Amino acid sequence: MSLRVIFLGPPGAGKGTQAEELAREWGVPHVATGDMLREAARRRTPLGLEAKRFMDTGVLVPDEVVIGLVGERLAEPDASRGAVLDGFPRTVAQAEALDRLLRERGTALDRVVFFDVSRGELLRRLTGRRVCRGCGATYHVVSAPPRVAGVCDRCQGALEQRVDDGEAAVATRLDVYATQTTPLLDYYRTRSVLSEIRGEGTVEDVAAAIRSAVGHGVAS
Ligand SMILES: [Zn+2]
Hints:
By secondary structure, this protein is an alpha/beta fold. The chain is about 45% helix and about 15% strand. The strands form 2 sheets. The protein has a 5-stranded parallel sheet, with helices on both faces. The chain has a 3-stranded antiparallel sheet with strand order 6-5-7.
């Protein structure tokens, strides 16, 4: 059996954690595009070097480079039974390219899982991060608090909130994500492969909702 699944969700939805766990359970690789780009750059493959050129200048890596890298990754032996894609596709153009790529290889997507998390909860999760000014250790005021509020456990340095984690910056990131993703959700909804699951609750609850959405696809 094979399993080709995409996990879609806003920043802070917790899809990375779920993708890692469930990919292991299903015996397929977890393909996180961000990590994959950095890895390809490190290995200095032709596409990796091209991606690096964009990343170094802070420009978004163009679709054709990302698609090329995803294509290479999915052709590796460990992905012969499928993969959990995390962070890709981001646009309808990328989704169309992925469909073409899978069709050329005689396969198709099994399911697209969207993590539905309320804006309030996302703001709470994303603005709670605190970083130590001294050693760089990270904490979360709710899910991973230091022993003493505002003080680093390791070096007693002062904890601060990065500008990127402030409410205004986070709200902008969520708006950009929503604008970008709505057409992508429509694309998959019309193809009847979209499952929207509630991304709140315990890690176990969310994992159970994903398993049931993916259903028959569990690799044996
Ligand atoms: Zn510290």
